[in-house]
Amino acid sequence: MIRIKILKLNKACTHEKLIDYGFKKYGTSYKLIFPLYKYKDIPTISISFLVSFPDNYIGYDVIDNNSELLYFPYYDSEYSNKNKNIVLKKVISGVNKILCDMNRNKIIQYDRKDNV
To answer: What is the torsional sign of CA 94, 18, 66, 81?
Structure first.
């Protein structure tokens, strides 16, 4: 099973809200990166958000900054046990906190119970 959160842009989300939240505009898209896990104060795992208003799209990737690839344990709950992987547990907690904060700030519409 894969951990994928279904995100929708909040209808109240605007250019100004995204910029105030920290998104940077690139053409018609907006991008924001948050560190999720640090090793010796160096971000090693991050979450990267991409927003496109013309497509009414918001998506994210959890990235291993060392390889610049997806952080595989986050996406593969079948073989990755968050109870045995302390880093994964912190990453999942960080993703959930960020999504809840984005929901509070009316960037996304996110119902946590629909995204277990």
So the answer is: positive
Q: Please count the other Cβ atoms lying within 10 Å of the Cβ belonging to residue 38.
A: 13
Which letter does DSSP use for residue 85 in this model? Answer: -
Statement: the pTM of the whole predicted model exceeds 0.85: yes
Give the three-class secondary structure for 76: coil
Structure tokens at 35: 């560190």
Q: pLDDT tens for the chain, 116 residues: list them.
A: 456 778 999 999 999 999 999 999 999 999 999 999 999 999 999 999 999 998 999 999 999 999 999 999 998 877 777 778 889 999 999 999 999 999 999 999 876 555 44
Q: What element of type H or E holds 94?
A: helix 86-104
Residue 75 gets which letter from DSSP? H
User: C-alpha angle 64/50/8, rounded to 5°?
Assistant: 115
